[in-house]
Amino acid sequence: MKKQHKQTVLLAGATGYLGSYIAEALSQDQIACKLIARTPSKLKELESKTVKIISAQVTNPNSLKGICEGVTTVISTIGITRQKDGLTYMDVDYQANMNLLNEAKKAGVRKFIYVSAINGTKYRHLKIFEAKEKFVDALKLSGLTYTVIRPNGFFSDMKDFLQMAKRGRVYLFGKGDQKFNPIHGEDLATLCVQSIFQQKSEIVVGGPDILTLKEISEMALDAYQKPIKITHLPDFLRKILIWSLRNFTSSKTYGPIEFFLTLMAEDNIAPRYGSKRLSHFFEVCVQTNTKK
Fold first, then answer.
1. Dmax of the chain from CA atoms?
2. Would residue 288 be called left, alpha or beta, if left means φ above 0 and alpha means ψ between -120 and 50 degrees?
3. Given this model, what pLDDT does residue 63 score?
4. What is the arithmetic mean of pLDDT over 248-274?
5. CB 3.0 to 4.6 Å from 56: which of 25, 63, 216, 241, for a disulfide?
6. In the predicted model, what is the mean pLDDT of the chain?
7. What pLDDT score was predicted for residue 248?
8. So what's the pLDDT on residue 6?
9. Is the pLDDT higher at 62 or at 262?
10. Cα 212 to Cα 284: distance, rounded to the nearest angstrom
């Protein structure tokens, strides 16, 4: 339902996976917003009376000066899974968000919404989580009203299963009975926009279906119409792999693998939300790849 809101939202990360869905949701709901982009042309089609595109780079504080003027709420999806372009997790997940937070405080922004990840405190020792949680700490002490949104993984993160399934076999550590419920970016975007008008300091959220890794593997193989072939590797190999990566490679290499292998080792179940199903997401991915 479209209606006018007395809000002006600044969205950082608007060209990313989740950010693009949030930008679309803000536009559809006719909420006045500013979208930050390094390459504004990527968002040109969203520009309207309520949507303004701003060229800025969140890792460069000078490019953000005054960016929060007239803004009531900041939403940040800024974060990286893989370190690249010479930027570390601390450069992006922590410092870039701090740059935004500092501008928000100067401009008197009322609320800051930050998208982190599930069980951040528990997994703080992981490189990816370390930077995110350091920013969460700063946000809590900022004096601003805040909401930390903690999704239980995205559907897009499940593409690793599709890559294995395409080759005809999926490999799992252990029995594959670990459960979790990833969420589609579009469903999460809806929740992020709703949180603008809610008074919740933290929202833990997952998708509608609680699935085991074995079930996700079967879905991926079904999407490619492959016979169910799943190889179960001893879990001690997972632990050895994590140890080896930490000791013999850089965080640029082991960061995302450490994250994946650690979270996949135990149940991570969040309150269910949304309507989009992983099985359909897999089918669409396969159809899209087939057409290319």
1. 58
2. alpha
3. 95
4. 85
5. 63
6. 92
7. 86
8. 83
9. 62
10. 21
Tokens for 239, please give them: 């632990």
- Spell out a b/e string for 136-167, using b for 16 or more CB atoms within 10 Å of the CB, else e: beebeebebebbbbbbbbbbebbeebbebbee
> Quick one: pLDDT at residue 86?
80
**Does residue 138 have a pLDDT over 50?**
yes
CA distance 17 to 21: 7
Residue 65 in tokens: 């000066």
DSSP at 274 = -
Q: Which two tokens stand for residue 59?
A: 């890792």
- Closest by Cα among 178, 142, 147 to 260: 178
pLDDT band at 84 (very low <50, low <70, confident <90, very high): confident
What secondary structure does DSSP assign to 74-131, as a single string? EEE----SS--TT--HIIIIIIIHHHHHHHHHHHT-SEEEEE--TTTTTTTTSHHHHH
**Structure token digits, residue 156:** 């897009």
8-153+184-205 sits in which CATH class? Answer: alpha beta
Tokens at 207, concatenated:
């998708």
φ, ψ of residue 213 to 5 degrees: the values are -60, -35
Residue (of 183, 285, 160, 173) closest to 224 by Cα position: 285
What average pLDDT does this structure show over 82-96? 87
Task: Let me know how long the chain is.
Answer: 292
Sign (positive or negative) of CA dihedral 99, 104, 106, 107: positive
